[in-house]
């Protein structure tokens, strides 16, 4: 009788471990659009920065990128980065440097899913230029599209081979 109780308690414990989740669930997973800014020009250190998002091409409706979960704009000594759930079509950045000066950039467009930009530090402003990249898809998406294309080509070759073999055997 004692063994039956112990077995029942062990069974209930194991069942509770399976049915009751003990790990936290993360619903906000998956790739998010990002931007990387690399600075060239005067050798100064980045202290802080703000990225403004705009729906209008002239940025008359500029608003700072909000900090929401992983979404944010942040800077390190020699570069800045942005991560968002989705970016507006137009942007402008304002960067404060170690020499005490703050510069504002030109208006630039989102260049892709994983956008990369070169920021030239000029005496009175910043020039943001997109670097060419195939950032249309995240890296994983590009790999999956490439695999799908290769599979389709393989299927076409196999189908053509079967068609030609059957056609030859009928003759």
Summarize the structure.
The protein is of the alpha+beta class. It contains two helices and ten strands. β6 and β7 form a beta hairpin.
CATH class of the domain at 34-130: Mainly Beta
Instruction: Note poorly predicted spans.
Output: none
**At CATH's second level, what is the architecture of the domain at 34-130?**
Sandwich
| Main sheet strand line-up | 4-5-1-9-10
H/E element sequence: HEEEEEEEEEEH
* Largest sheet composition: 5 strands, mixed
Mean pLDDT over the full residue set:
83
Helix content: 25-40%
Q: Based on DSSP secondary structure assignment, what is the total number of beta strands?
A: 10
Structural Rg: 27 Å
The percentage of residues in β strands lies in 25-35%
Number of helices: 2
Separation of termini? 80 Å
Based on Cα principal axes, name the global outline.
Answer: flat
Structural class: alpha+beta
CATH topology term of the domain at 34-130: Immunoglobulin-like
Description:
The chain has two helices and ten strands. β2 and β3 form a beta hairpin. It has a domain at 34-130: Immunoglobulin-like, CATH 2.60.40. Helices cover 29% and strands 32% of the residues. It is α+β, with helices and mostly antiparallel strands and 171 residues long.
């Amino acid at each position: 009788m004692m063994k039956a109780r112990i077995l029942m308690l062990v069974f209930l414990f194991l069942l509770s471990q399976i049915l009751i989740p003990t790990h936290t669930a993360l619903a906000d997973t998956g790739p998010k659009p990002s931007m990387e800014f690399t600075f060239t020009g005067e050798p100064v250190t980045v202290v802080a920065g703000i990225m403004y998002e705009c729906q209008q091409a002239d940025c008359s409706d500029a608003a700072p990128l909000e900090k929401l979960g992983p979404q944010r704009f942040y800077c390190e000594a020699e570069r800045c980065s942005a991560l968002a759930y989705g970016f507006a079509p137009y942007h402008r950045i304002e960067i404060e440097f170690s020499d005490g000066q703050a510069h504002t950039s030109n208006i630039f467009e989102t260049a892709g899913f994983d956008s990369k930009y070169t920021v030239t530090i000029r005496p009175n402003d910043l020039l943001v230029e997109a670097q060419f990249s195939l950032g249309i898809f995240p890296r994983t998406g590009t790999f999956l599209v490439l695999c799908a294309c290769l599979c389709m080509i393989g299927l076409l070759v196999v189908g053509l081979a079967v068609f030609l073999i059957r056609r030859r055997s009928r003759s």
